[in-house]
Design a protein that fits this description.
With 330 residues, chain A is mainly α. Chain A is built from eleven helices and five strands. A four-stranded mixed beta sheet of chain A has the order 2-1-3-4. Chain B has 335 residues and is of the alpha/beta class. Chain B has helices at 3-15, 17-38, 58-67, 76-84, 110-124, 146-176, 178-184, 189-215, 220-247, 251-275, 281-285, 290-302, 309-334; strands at 48-52, 69-73, 91-96, 99-104, 133-137. Classes of the chains: A mainly alpha (330), B alpha/beta (335). Strand 5 of chain A pairs parallel with strand 4 (99-104) of chain B, so a sheet runs across the interface.
C-alpha cells in the first residue's frame, strides 16, 4: 500500500516537473523579489516642498528645508503643480500661494504647513509607538499580499493543469480499475502542492524580509500558507475534475481572481471600510496571513475550526467529484 | 483577403466563452471607472486623525476637522491599535495642557510623518493665518491624476485583448489538432497569418473603441488620433499574440506567457510615465516598449496636449519591425 502511494507521489512529481511548474514558481519568485526590493521598498510620498521668494531677505527664522527662488516667475512655476507651496515675501505682508489640489482639507493642511515654516517655534516630535519603520512595513505588507495571491493562484491552477493532462491521457480511467485508493490519488497531489507552496512561502519570506525578521515570522506564516494552499488546491481539484476542459476552468479562474480576490486586496491595502467584507471567506484568510507577517495576535479558535472544516468538506467534495468522473469514464 | 475564412474564425470565437469574457472585461472596467468618477476617492488622500473620547476640546476637534478626517475612539488602547494598524496612515492626537501631542506608528509615508511631527506647531500658530495674505489658484488640470491613469490603463488592457484572443485561439487549435489540418488545407502561410491577425485585431479594436466610448469624453478633433493609436497598438498586440501562440506548446504555458507579457505591456509605461521626466534619456529609451508610445499619447490626449507626432511615428515603426520579425522567424521555422 505504502509502495503504491510513493509510486503515485513520484508520478505526480514528474508530472509537475514536466509541466514546468517549478520553473514558473522560481520565475515568479525572482520577479516578485525584484519588484519588492527595487521598486516597492522605495515607494514614498514626500512632504509638500515650500518655495520662498524673498529678494530683500526680510524673513528670519526660515527653516532649512525651504527652497529659495529668485524671481516671481520661478515661484509661480514652482507652485503650479498642485502640491508645492509658494511664499512670496517681496511685498510687505508675505503671501502664501497655493494651487488647489482639488481636496479642500489637503489645501488647508498645506496652508497651515506653510504658516509653520514662517514661524520660529519648534514642534514637539510625535511619539513613535509602532514596531516597524516604513521600509519594514512595506516589505511585510507586500510580501503578505504577493504570497496570498500566488498561493491562491498556484495551488488552484497548478493542480488543475496536472489533472487536465491526466484526464487527457486517460489516467483517471486507468485508476478506476486499479486498486489504488481514491483518497491516495487526491492526497499525493495535495502533498506535493503543499510542499511546493511551503517552500515558495519560505523562500519569498526570507528573500524579502531578510533572514532574521524572516525566521521570526516564518512559523506563523507557514501555518497560514499551509491552510491557504490546502484549501485552494482542493478547490482546484474539485473544479478541474467537474469541468470538461482547461479553458472553461481558466474562465472560472478569471472570475475568481476578479471578484473574489480584488475586494480582499482593496480592503487589506487601503483600509477602505466595507462592512460586508467580514462575510467574505477569503478575507479572513488574507487577514490571517497579514497578521502573521505583522506578528499581530493570533485569530480566535473559530477561524481555525472554520479552516479545518472547510478543508474537510472540500476533501469530501473532491472525492465525490473523482468518484463521479470515474463512473462517467466507466 | 479570404472573407469566408475570417467568418469561420469569428464563429469559433463566438463559441469561446473565455474570448467573450476577455472582450467584455475592459468594457465592464470602463463602466466601473465611470461610476467611480462620481464616487469620492478624496477621503483616502486626506490626513486622518484619531482622538480619544472626552479628551480634546471642541475647538481643537473642529480645528483638526479643517485639515483632515477625525475618528473618535473609546480608549487610548483602541487608539493605539488603530494607529499601529499597517493599512492606515492614522495619526493619534491627544491633549497636553493647552497644547496637543501626537502619536504615530513610525511606518507612515514621509508626508504623514512630517505632518505628525509639525502638528503641535501648526496647532500653536493656528491663529496666525490673519497675518498673511493667501492666493488660492484653481487646479491647473483636472484635479485627480488617478482617473486618466485608470482610463489609459484600461484602454491598454483592452488593446492587449487582441493578443489574448490570438494566443488562445491558436493554442486551442494546437490542442485540438486543427494545426495539422491547416497544414494540408489549400491556404498559404500569409493567408493564415492575415486571418489570425485580423481576428485579434478586430476584437482588440472593437473592445477598445467601446471602452474609449464609455470612459473618454472626446472632442471631434481628438477622435482621429485616438482611433489611430487604437488601430496601431491593436495590430501590435495581435502580432504578439501570434508570437505567443507559436512559441507556447500548451494552454498552461500560453497563459503564463500572456501573464508575463501583459505585465511587461502595462507596468513599464506607468513607471516611466510617473518616474522619468519627458525629454530625458530614460523617457526616450522607454519607447522600446510598444505600449509606452500609446500610453504617453493617450495621456497627452486626456490632458489636452496636441503634439503627438513622435508617439505615432514610434508606433508605426514598431508595427513594421514586429511584422518583419515575425515573417523572418516564421520563414526560418518553415525551412
Amino acid at each position: 500500500m505504502r509502495g503504491s502511494f510513493f509510486a503515485l507521489l513520484k508520478k505526480d512529481f514528474r508530472l509537475m516537473v514536466s509541466s514546468k511548474f517549478f520553473l514558473l514558481a522560481i520565475g515568479s519568485l525572482i520577479l516578485y523579489s525584484c519588484y519588492i526590493n527595487l521598486v516597492y521598498v522605495k515607494v514614498d510620498q514626500e512632504i509638500f516642498p515650500v518655495y520662498l521668494y524673498d529678494p530683500e531677505q526680510v524673513q528670519e527664522n526660515i527653516s532649512a528645508d525651504v527652497i529659495s527662488v529668485y524671481s516671481p516667475e520661478e515661484l509661480q512655476n514652482a507652485c503650479e503643480d498642485g502640491y508645492s507651496i509658494g511664499i512670496d515675501a517681496s511685498k510687505g505682508t508675505p503671501r502664501i500661494i497655493i494651487a488647489s489640489c482639488g481636496i479642500s482639507r489637503l489645501d488647508e493642511m498645506r496652508h497651515s504647513y506653510a504658516l509653520s515654516k514662517l514661524s520660529s517655534g519648534n514642534s514637539r516630535k510625535a511619539k513613535i509607538i509602532g514596531p516597524n519603520d516604513k521600509e519594514m512595513k512595506n516589505r511585510r505588507e507586500i510580501t503578505a499580499e504577493f504570497l496570498f495571491f500566488e498561493l491562491a493562484a498556484v495551488g488552484f491552477l497548478g493542480l488543475a493543469s496536472m489533472l487536465f493532462k491526466e484526464k487527457q491521457m486517460g489516467v483517471i480511467r486507468v485508476h478506476a480499475v486499479l486498486s489504488v485508493q481514491k483518497g491516495a490519488f487526491i492526497l499525493s497531489k495535495l502533498i506535493l502542492i503543499l510542499f511546493a507552496d511551503l517552500l515558495f512561502a519560505a523562500l519569498l519570506t526570507l528573500c524579502n524580509l531578510g533572514v532574521s525578521a524572516g525566521v521570526e515570522v516564518l512559523p506563523k506564516v507557514l501555518v497560514q500558507a499551509g491552510i491557504l494552499s490546502m484549501i485552494m488546491a482542493m478547490a482546484g481539484f474539485f473544479f478541474s475534475i467537474t469541468l470538461p476542459d482547461f479553458k472553461q476552468f481558466s474562465l472560472l479562474y478569471l472570475v475568481l481572481a476578479v471578484f473574489i480576490t480584488t475586494p480582499v486586496f482593496l480592503a487589506g491595502q487601503t483600509g477602505v471600510e466595507m462592512s460586508w467584507i467580514k462575510f467574505h471567506p477569503m478575507y479572513h484568510l488574507f487577514a490571517a496571513m497579514k497578521n502573521a507577517y505583522f506578528q499581530a495576535p493570533v485569530k480566535n479558535g473559530f477561524y481555525y475550526a472554520g479552516c479545518l472544516m472547510s478543508i474537510f468538506l472540500l476533501f469530501l467534495l473532491a472525492r465525490y467529484g473523482l468518484d463521479r468522473e470515474m463512473k462517467r469514464e466507466g | 483577403m479570404n472573407w469566408i475564412g475570417l467568418k469561420f474564425q469569428l464563429k469559433t470565437i463566438r463559441r469561446d466563452k473565455l474570448c467573450i469574457l476577455t472582450f467584455l472585461l475592459p468594457i465592464i472596467v470602463g463602466i466601473a471607472i465611470n461610476l467611480l468618477g462620481d464616487m469620492n476617492l478624496t477621503s483616502t488622500a486626506e490626513p486622518s486623525f484619531g482622538i480619544v473620547q472626552n479628551d480634546l476640546t471642541k475647538e481643537t476637534i473642529s480645528w483638526l476637522q479643517e485639515t483632515g478626517s477625525v475618528t473618535v475612539y473609546d480608549s487610548t488602547d483602541a487608539l493605539d491599535i488603530a494607529i499601529i494598524d499597517p493599512s492606515t496612515q492614522l495619526l493619534g492626537v491627544l491633549s497636553l495642557g493647552n497644547e496637543i501631542r501626537v502619536l504615530r506608528s513610525g511606518d507612515e509615508l514621509q508626508m504623514y510623518a512630517v505632518i505628525a511631527d509639525t502638528l503641535p506647531l501648526l496647532y500653536a500658530v493656528r491663529n496666525h493665518a490673519g497675518k498673511y495674505e493667501q492666493t488660492l489658484l484653481p487646479p491647473k488640470n483636472s484635479n485627480d491624476i488617478l482617473k486618466p491613469l485608470l482610463i489609459v490603463i484600461t484602454m491598454i488592457t483592452a488593446m492587449f485583448m487582441g493578443c489574448t484572443f490570438n494566443a488562445m485561439n491558436i493554442l486551442s487549435e494546437k490542442e485540438d489538432g486543427i494545426v495539422f489540418i491547416n497544414e494540408i488545407l489549400p491556404m498559404t502561410g500569409t493567408q493564415y497569418v492575415k486571418q489570425k491577425i485580423a481576428v485579434g485585431f478586430l476584437g482588440g479594436v472593437l473592445s477598445t473603441v467601446i471602452t474609449a466610448f464609455v470612459c473618454m469624453r472626446l472632442s471631434v478633433t481628438q477622435i482621429l488620433p485616438v482611433l489611430l493609436f487604437i488601430i496601431l497598438s491593436s495590430f501590435i498586440a495581435s502580432l504578439i499574440g501570434l508570437f505567443i501562440g507559436r512559441s507556447a506548446n500548451g494552454l498552461m504555458a500560453g497563459i503564463m506567457y500572456i501573464k508575463i507579457i501583459m505585465i511587461l505591456f502595462i507596468a513599464p509605461p506607468i513607471l516611466f510615465y510617473l518616474a522619468a521626466p519627458a525629454g530625458g534619456i530614460l523617457h526616450t529609451l522607454s519607447y522600446a516598449f510598444p505600449s509606452s508610445a500609446t500610453f504617453y499619447g493617450l495621456m497627452g490626449i486626456l490632458n489636452g496636449n496636441g503634439a503627438l507626432g513622435t508617439e505615432i511615428i514610434v508606433l508605426i515603426a514598431h508595427c513594421f519591425l514586429w511584422f518583419l520579425l515575425y515573417i523572418m522567424t516564421s520563414k526560418r521555422i518553415q525551412s
